[in-house]
Here is the input.
Amino acid sequence: MTTPHLVVERVGFTTVQDAGRPGWAHLGVPRSGAVDHASFALANRLLGNEPTSALFETSGGLRMRLHAPTTVVLTGADAEAFVDDRPLAACRPQRITEGVVLRVERMRTGVRSYLGFAGGLSGEPVLGSLSHDTLSKLVPIGLSDGATVELAATPERGGREGVAPIGLDAPLHPAALTHALLSPGPHQAWFDPEVLSADRARWTVTAQSDRVAVRLSGHAVPRRLAGEVPSLALVRGAVQVPPSGELIVMLADHPTTGGYPVIGVMNPDDVDRLAQTPTGSSIVVARQRT
Amino acid sequence: MPHSDQPSARALAPEVRVVKYGDCALLIDGLTPGVAAALREVVLRRLHNDAVRVVDVVPAATSLTVMHEPADGDVVRHHALAALDDSLAFDAEQGVTVEIPVRYDGEDLPVVAATLGCSVAEVIQLHSNAVYVVEFCGFAPGFAYLGGLDQRLHLSRRTSPRTRVPAGAVAIASTYSAVYPRESPGGWHLLGTTTMTLWDATRNQPALLQPGMRVRFRAMS
Here is the structure.
């Protein structure tokens, strides 16, 4: 009997992600893991998986063939997704048979979808995680066209077909971020109090955004002090201001330390939504008064 | 040396401040360089004894960041403030010292010597005579910032970083020395190379150099 597995026929913009690598940051290892925590958690919850089970995080172009019957679910961005040629509905665990072809083609809205399987993906963890860390190049499960990925063999667990155990009013897809209120950062004193205090301060998501950080452009950010700050630890949601004046908001693969002043910190729910906000979108960013 | 004779972090840096760093982290800032790694041990011990779950405790140049569950902000703050007054366990004499053999064949040796107005042999001597401390890690897994570099070797980074620095490259920049754990881009001045493995994720201790450890470089002929 062969191990249940799938074969990736076309990778597209896809990585394997789980809850990441907490506990290693003091050695310079980023947290990594799924960028949109809420959509990741929802996928595993819908499947009855462990909350840290590994799945696919994709921005589209993904095609795979299943070599075992299993249950699949799709959460996160609203994507054109198919089981063979039938659409795969969001947030509805669906039984699939051996041999079917799964596709996640294009994001209609949002940036990242999460494609999970009952029991999760299986592999040899690196530092306790199967996450692909794009900054540190830690890749426990390397995806390429033709790659085989094992499925954890837990047929009896996982997902009631057709049941979406979230409230009827709950959105099927995360909304884009339109307004963010930053809590105070460690380097408030580096900036004029007026910076990011005007409610008309609209920022634009730039194309230089990835799993490491989202870069926002739009305004000059005058500094009161010159130079760099002593390197300090970065956290998810920390907003760095380099001399160019962009806002760099840290996501999952952010470096563990950095030397630019941090003007504020975005709250975790807003970071989830920022991760689903496409290039070119406009966001009003303000910071709390201290 | 008796434990109580050790100074506290607050005694070393009276201006230290403890501030919220978002909903899930606390920043202890304004520490004396080199203290963060020792303070990390004190904070970890306190939180462990009180069964407070912390996610990561990350030393940096002059700060320590404690990443915690959102609900634990107050208890983490309590222990952080108390830890500042606890004596720090510096293991200056009996602590772990890692000796790293170096072949001083770095591309930047002549430029560094010329910049400092001394000979290549003097640069090597200054670099290999010092005792370094791992102040913190960053930049890449296992990349340790080594404090204790002789002041005469303090240089700003190269104006243009190299796109490729080999694994094992021994380098200096600013007030630090470091060993590149694997091939990467880098803007530090290259003094030599070592064959020691700085980073191996399959080892029980993946990083050879961890915060608080002492390091010596030994020149190989």
Chain B touches chain A through 38 residues (CB under 8 Å). The two ends of chain B are 37 Å apart (CA to CA).
